[in-house]
Amino acid sequence: MTDQALVELAFAMLERSYVPYSHFPVGAALLCADGTVFTGCNVENAAYGSTICAERTALVKAVSEGRRDDFVRLAVAGRSEDYCWPCGSCRQMLYEFAPDLTVLVARGDGGFVTLPLRELLPHGFGPSSLN
Ligand code: THU
Hints:
Cytidine Deaminase, domain 2, 4 helices, binds tetrahydrodeoxyuridine, 5-stranded mixed beta sheet
């Protein structure tokens, strides 16, 4: 799967976003080492704080299907001018399972940047931090 194809899967998920409050759809696609992709969208809630982001939707779908340790790339996409940077909670949740993940961050015109999760979340707190 090319980076471009993974980003396109993230964009396709914008149609599934449930965003009656922010009107800000976000899509995500998480690639496993064997080529399996788990997609996600943001799902908002009238109790705003109960909203789940697209990246975490994709991640919890994967983990709940038994995947844990073979995540290689995640694409996240929105329609805004700026890149759709993952929020802090998503960075933290991804770091738990995939500190060496590569993240593709797209903006509305389809352009995207590629960077390591470790750059988005330097000195992250992970499972070994509890030792
Ligand atoms: N959102 C995501 O889905 N991912 C992020 O990393 C940033 C924010 C969503 C949450 C909410 O539904 C909307 O974008 C506006 O904050």
